[in-house]
Amino acid sequence: MKKTTSILLALLFVAAVFGNCKEEEKDDNTVLALLLYANDQLSGNCATVTRNSSTSYSATITSVPKGGCKVASTKAEYEESIKTVKTKVLGYYTSVGASCNSSAAIATTQLDNLITTSNNKSDATFAADVEKQRAFTVGNLVTETALTLKNTDGRTDAQIAAMKPGTLEQYFLSTAIAYANAIGATSCANLMKNIDFDGATGLIANPPTIITSKTCTYGSSASATTKCATLNTEF
Question: In angstroms, rounded to a whole number, what is the distance separating the alpha carbons of residues 160 and 210?
Answer without folding.
Answer: 10
